[in-house]
């Protein structure tokens, strides 16, 4: 049975989300606080393995028009390193607006700014994974 794990790769934090057992929707899981590039790549690979991932979905940040953004190269470097340390297939998914949507949800629920940083990345990862799962079902 397939199990998808998604990562929202940021400069300071990496959000983690997992698919439900039927791969219908995504569940925010945790936020990993970055320490150093090599350690972060190893930690993300370990998280995916621990969650039982059969596919890793990484958010790829692009500009509104679909062109590469400044963050695109950083994320792609991380994704390439991740592919080199795990046997789990790694795919990319457009992550436009996923963090913005996550912030809006948390704000609408009345969450204070200080607490949002602990949840926003995992929720953004869930948005990335929801987009990927929706594409699979088509």
Looking at this protein, list some descriptive labels.
single chain; 46% helix; 138 residues; five-stranded mixed beta sheet; alpha/beta; globular
Description:
There is one protein chain. By secondary structure, the protein is an alpha/beta fold. Helix content is 46%, strand content 23%. It is built from 5 helices and 5 strands. 34% of the residues are buried.
Describe the structure concisely.
The chain is α/β, with parallel strands linked by helices and 138 residues long.
> How would you write the strand order of the largest sheet?
3-2-1-4-5
Could you give a short account of the major beta sheet?
Answer: 5 strands, mixed
Query: What is the β-strand count?
Result: 5
Per DSSP, the total helix count is 5
Overall geometry comes to: globular
Helix content: 40-55%
Q: Give the radius of gyration.
A: 14 Å
């Amino acid at each position: 049975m397939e199990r998808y794990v998604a990562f929202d790769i940021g400069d300071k934090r990496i959000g983690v989300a997992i698919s439900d057992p039927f791969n219908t929707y995504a569940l925010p899981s945790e936020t990993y606080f970055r320490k150093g590039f090599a350690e972060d790549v190893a930690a993300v690979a370990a998280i995916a393995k621990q969650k039982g991932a059969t596919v890793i979905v990484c958010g790829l940040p692009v500009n509104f028009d679909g062109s590469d953004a400044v963050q695109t190269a950083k994320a792609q470097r991380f994704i390439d390193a991740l592919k080199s340390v795990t046997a789990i297939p790694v795919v990319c998914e457009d992550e436009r607006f996923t963090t913005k949507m996550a912030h809006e949800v948390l704000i609408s629920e009345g969450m204070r700014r200080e607490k949002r940083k602990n949840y926003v990345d995992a929720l953004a990862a869930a948005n990335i994974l929801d987009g990927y799962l929706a594409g699979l079902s088509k």
